[in-house]
């Protein structure tokens, strides 16, 4: 699903990524871990086409994103990639349901279909009775579930999450982590999660370790070194 080859990235004199090669299979849940400044978020932004590498390529489902530009790149991102951030980034003036529907509006989906999909996601998230509530009326865990539903709105191939449970208490963390596996089982998305949460990293299918802009390890959740992923190293949760 994701094929990364030779990615480098610098900001001025600081080289943040130093030649990243990585493949992630369809339906995998992969965590990226490492110290602050290792390049984790920069790599995630490049995978999601929010930033461009200085060299190298990223292909998602066989499409080389470096060949896309302007409106084509924005359309690809909206349809094929969903984002979940540490802080939910919900728009306060809109209801939970309206926030979830925003990617569909951008994609030009008909209103009736967007409403049906949003209602389906709210129900799956256990928020069927919270769709008309605005973010200020939701708990922290509910807000993050709405943010996850928004990322899923256009049924993207890939969900990218940057410290998605970093602002949650232990109960809501556990529920959100389980939700990722439930979503993978129901919708089949590939998840790439940047995290400092050791428990979350330990239960993902693979843990990618980064240090100083390079890959420092690629381990399955049984602790064994993994190579290029295939169907055999995706562990049922």
TrEMBL record:
It comes from the Bacteria. Residues 214-237 are annotated as: Disordered. GO terms for molecular function: ATP binding; ATP hydrolysis activity; transmembrane transporter activity. The keyword Nucleotide-binding applies. This is ABC transporter ATP-binding protein. The keyword Nucleotide-binding applies. Belongs to the ABC transporter superfamily. Macrolide exporter (TC 3.A.1.122) family. InterPro entries: AAA+_ATPase, ABC_transporter-like_ATP-bd, ABC_transporter-like_CS, ABC_transpr_LolD-like, MacB-like_ATP-bd, P-loop_NTPase. Residues 2-237 form the ABC transporter domain. Transmembrane segments: none annotated.
């Amino acid at each position: 699903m994701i094929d990364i080859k030779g990615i480098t990235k610098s900001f001025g004199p600081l080289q943040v990524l130093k030649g990243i090669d990585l493949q992630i299979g369809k339906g995998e849940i992969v965590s990226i871990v490492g110290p602050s400044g290792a390049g984790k978020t920069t790599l995630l932004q490049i995978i999601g086409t929010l930033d461009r590498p200085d060299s190298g390529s990223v292909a998602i489902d066989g499409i080389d994103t470096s060949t896309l530009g302007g409106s084509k790149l924005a359309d690809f991102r909206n349809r094929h990639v969903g984002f979940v951030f540490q802080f939910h980034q919900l728009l306060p003036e809109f209801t939970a349901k309206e926030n979830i529907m925003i990617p569909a509006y951008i994609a030009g989906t008909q209103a009736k279909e967007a409403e049906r999909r949003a209602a389906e996601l709210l129900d799956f998230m256990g928020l069927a009775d919270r769709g008309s509530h605005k973010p200020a009326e939701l708990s922290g865990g509910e807000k993050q579930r709405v943010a996850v539903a928004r990322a899923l709105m256009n049924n993207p191939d890939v969900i990218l999450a940057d410290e998605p449970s970093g602002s949650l208490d232990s109960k809501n963390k556990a529920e959100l982590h389980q939700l990722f596996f439930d979503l993978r089982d129901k919708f089949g998305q590939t998840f790439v999660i940047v995290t400092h949460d050791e428990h979350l990293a330990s239960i993902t299918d693979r843990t990618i370790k980064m240090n100083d802009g390079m890959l420092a390890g690629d381990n399955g959740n049984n602790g064994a070194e993994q190579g290029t992923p295939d169907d055999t190293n995706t562990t049922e949760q």
